[in-house]
Amino acid sequence: MPLIRPFAALRPAPEHADAVLAPPYDVLSSGEARERTVGKPWSFLHVSKAEIDLPEDIDPYDASVYAKSAENFQRMMSQGVLVQDDAPCYYVYRLVMGSHVQTGIAAAASVEAYDAERIKKHEFTRPAKEDDRVRQIEALGAQTGPVFLVYPANAVVDGILADVAKGAPDMDVTADSGVQHTLWVIRDAVQIEAISTAFEAMDALYVADGHHRSAAASRVAASRKASNPKHSGDELYSYFLSVIFPHDQMHILDYNRVIRDLKGMQPNGFLAKVAESFDIELSDVPVHPQGAGTFGMYLAGNWYALSIWDELIPHDDPVARLDVSLLAANLIEPLLGISDPRRDTRIDFIGGIRGLEELEKRVDSGEMAVAFSMFPTSMTDLMAVADSGEVMPPKSTWFEPKLADGVVSHMLD
């Protein structure tokens, strides 16, 4: 089966696009989503977080939530708010956040390639979140949350996308966040064939964000294949919704750490312990690390610049040499006793989009005792981890800007 193929997207009618586009389902709480949708009956949050249309005490995993999601989805289609293209297409999807621009392609990606690890993962998934996405897909008969994939930058693909993006867009919406979402439809058969051929020559694609969505798509495909005696591999369920960007246009922000206590140590004693593995320099200003192996630390009202000793860096190990791994292995675990950051409630994670002020706030309030600012993980490092068959430590990457929900959906039924 081809690595990717065009698909007939369900997308907002032009006059409704601004009303439909919504943040990804997993970046807002139910309460935040309720607030965002006041007076907005066509917001895609009514599909992606349908608990907002049910009593406030509803369990978001209750069966009635998925039923309501399907009801809202059908209503948007029957009212002409969402309209399906009449033929398979590719879609150029451009994101603009401030001075940052990234241009990718919306496509249907092969589940078979995902299962064979030609579409490579770098995170573990949680069964409960997988189950949620499976139930959502089956309730809607569609995949509505795109998986954010990355391809090694390719001159042929990049050139076609750039040429298409010179024309008038089919959708152009600036979200409340200030991020501009622009879409162009590729209907030209020659361009479609050239894109498909260029992707087929690639060794691999990489999941940047959407591990639970891709895992759920694989489970749905396996289930439907098992119940279909005429399965050919060409079925719609054999592919999943994706938006794929070139690796050299990715914008990864820092993913910072805050720790609740110093495990009984006083700040000066803690600093002395840190100095056994790091060079420490007091800073007059908040510390934005400027390179790998360097960290900022906010402790007792002061910022410090940390540099890990080079002999402690296992340069030949793609996971262990990551900054998030180095900080965990040489400070957070041995000094603060946090060995399982996925479950330990003493540690929390703050995306770089919120700035270093948020780190200071959490420590100055007394809620946390120490904060660490990180140098962003590079896309090259992420790809190296995926190529090695390993997984990243939790909360290693924060991608911005985010894709919007509602731009394109992949119908399975």
Folded structure, characterized:
- The strands form five sheets. Strands 1, 4, 5, 6, 8, 9, 10, 11 and 12 form a nine-stranded mixed beta sheet that branches. A six-stranded antiparallel beta sheet has the order 15-17-16-19-14-18, with helices on both faces.
- Helix content is 31%, strand content 24%.
- Helix 4 (63-78) runs parallel beside helix 6 (127-140) and helix 6 packs across helix 9 (211-226).
- It has two domains: 4-251, no CATH class; 255-375, Conserved hypothetical protein from pyrococcus furiosus pfu- 392566-001, domain 2.
- It is globular, with a radius of gyration of 23 Å.
- The chain is built from 13 helices and 21 strands.
- With 413 residues, it is of the alpha+beta class.
Q: Compute the average pLDDT.
A: 96
Main structural class: alpha+beta
Number of strands: 21
Assess the beta-strand content as a share of residues: 15-25%
Largest sheet features: 9 strands, mixed
Radius of gyration: 23 Å
Cα distance, first to last residue?
Answer: 20 Å
Shape: globular
Residue stretches low in confidence (pLDDT < 50, at least 5 long) are: none
* Helical run tally: 13
Helix content: 25-40%
- What is the domain total for the residues? 2
